[in-house]
């Protein structure tokens, strides 16, 4: 659970508390959240993905609980590049001392066809990611790019949009198998592309 730049080292990131434990209608008490964070901290889990800073108030509450409790575990926020409020999301994440932001971007044709939700085309991917990454660079937060539904996207689209991101300050690339269609071998092949 120790983070290094070694490609063979794993970093555990908990997502259980994201958007209120991810179970519709489920509420977790503030005391339970405190206990859960303390347990993750004791176990040495270094990161908690806690959600959208401007979408779910539970995210900001969790970030504040982590900071006020003096825990070593670090909060990560999700920043959807496809909304008009991404700057607000980043500013709130910085204000609440998030450790990292993950820039969420749709990559597959299936997601990009949902124009009423994502409102972007394949040609918009790189400019949108670049804008969010540049805005985040003015903060103390680390920045990652999260390729939504990457396992159903053309590999050339992923490679074109992600080349050079390290030079722009991106320290992590997340490949989402959003619908669970990739086998371990297919995921390994995707991750090893363009090394």
Structure description:
- The relative contact order is 0.11.
- The protein has 195 residues and is of the alpha/beta class.
- It is 35% helix and 17% strand.
- The two termini are 24 Å apart.
- Strands 1-2-3-4-5-6 form a six-stranded parallel sheet, covered by helices on one side.
- The model has no long low-confidence stretch (mean pLDDT 86).
**Low-pLDDT residue spans:** none
Number of strands: 6
Roughly what is the average pLDDT, rounded to an integer? 86
Number of helix segments? 7
Strand proportion, as a percent range, falls in: 15-25%
The main sheet orders its strands as 1-2-3-4-5-6
Gross morphology: globular
Order of helices and strands: EHEHEHEHHEHEH
Distance between the termini: 24 Å
Largest sheet geometry: 6 strands, parallel
The helix content, as a percent range, equals 25-40%
SSE layout and pairings?
Layout: E1 13-14, H1 30-43, E2 47-51, H2 57-68, E3 74-80, H3 86-95, E4 100-106, H4 109-112, H5 125-137, E5 142-148, H6 155-162, E6 170-175, H7 184-191
Parallel strand pairs: 1-2, 2-3, 3-4, 4-5, 5-6
Q: What can be said about this structure in brief?
A:
With 195 residues, the protein is an alpha/beta fold. Helix content is 35%, strand content 17%.
Structural features:
195 residues, alpha/beta, 7 helices, 35% helix, globular
């Amino acid at each position: 659970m120790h983070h290094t730049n070694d490609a063979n080292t794993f970093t555990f990131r908990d997502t259980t508390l994201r958007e209120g434990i991810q179970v519709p209608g489920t509420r977790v008490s503030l005391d339970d959240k405190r206990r859960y964070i303390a347990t993750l901290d004791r176990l040495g889990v270094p990161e908690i993905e806690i959600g959208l800073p401007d979408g779910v108030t539970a995210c900001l509450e969790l970030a504040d609980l982590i900071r006020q409790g003096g825990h070593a575990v670090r909060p990560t926020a999700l920043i959807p590049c496809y909304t008009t409020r991404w700057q607000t999301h980043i500013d709130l994440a910085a204000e609440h001392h998030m450790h990292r932001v993950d820039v969420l971007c749709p990559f597959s044709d299936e997601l990009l066809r949902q124009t009423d939700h994502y409102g972007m085309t394949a040609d918009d991917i790189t400019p949108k990611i670049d804008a969010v990454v540049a805005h985040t660079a003015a903060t103390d937060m680390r920045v990652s790019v999260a390729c939504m539904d990457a396992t159903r996207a053309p590999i050339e689209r992923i490679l074109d949009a992600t080349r050079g991101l390290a030079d722009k300050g991106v320290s992590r690339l997340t490949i989402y198998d959003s619908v669970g269609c990739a086998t371990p071998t297919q995921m390994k092949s995707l991750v090893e592309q363009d090394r």
